[in-house]
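Researcher: Let's do a round of design. I'm pasting the structure tokens now; please hold your answer until I've finished.
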């Protein structure tokens, strides 16, 4: 599975840590940027770039987006059809997001993550948890798709 990852200056160090973590685990990773810790860059640019890629193949790819609060990148990512982004606070939280809602983009808050190891644990659960595919969850995702298609 191809994983797209992107972050602004606020999430740059965490992005670099997670990129190495993912590569060491054998995942295929496409770094969308930033390529340096540039103080005047903007999170919408990187969240958009990742979300566009995931939107083009929402079932075959995953995305990880990072900024200081996590809110900005999560809001941007959720603007794209087929993208379901979540901003979890724990491994249990991300498990439920994957299991119940089949989220395909992980938004992370660099300023609020306890440490890089915890971020790696959240990321691993995000990547390893399958969607439950129960009828009630599938029905809800169809309703979300209907909303996306109606606007």
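Researcher: That's everything. Go ahead.
Model: Designed sequence:
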């Amino acid at each position: 599975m191809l994983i797209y990852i992107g972050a602004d200056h606020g999430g740059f160090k965490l992005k670099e840590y997670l990129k190495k973590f993912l590569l060491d685990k054998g995942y295929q990773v496409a770094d969308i940027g930033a390529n340096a810790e540039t103080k005047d860059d903007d999170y919408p640019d990187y969240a958009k770039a990742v979300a566009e890629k995931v939107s083009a193949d929402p079932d075959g790819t995953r995305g990880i987006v990072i900024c200081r609060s996590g809110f900005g990148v999560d809001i941007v990512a959720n603007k794209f059809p087929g993208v379901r982004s979540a901003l979890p606070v724990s491994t249990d939280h991300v498990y439920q997001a994957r299991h119940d809602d089949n989220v395909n983009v992980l938004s992370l808050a660099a300023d609020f993550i306890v440490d890089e190891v915890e971020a790696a644990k959240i990321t691993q659960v995000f990547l390893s948890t399958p969607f439950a595919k129960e009828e009630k969850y599938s029905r809800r995702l169809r309703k979300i798709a209907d909303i996306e298609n109606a606007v």
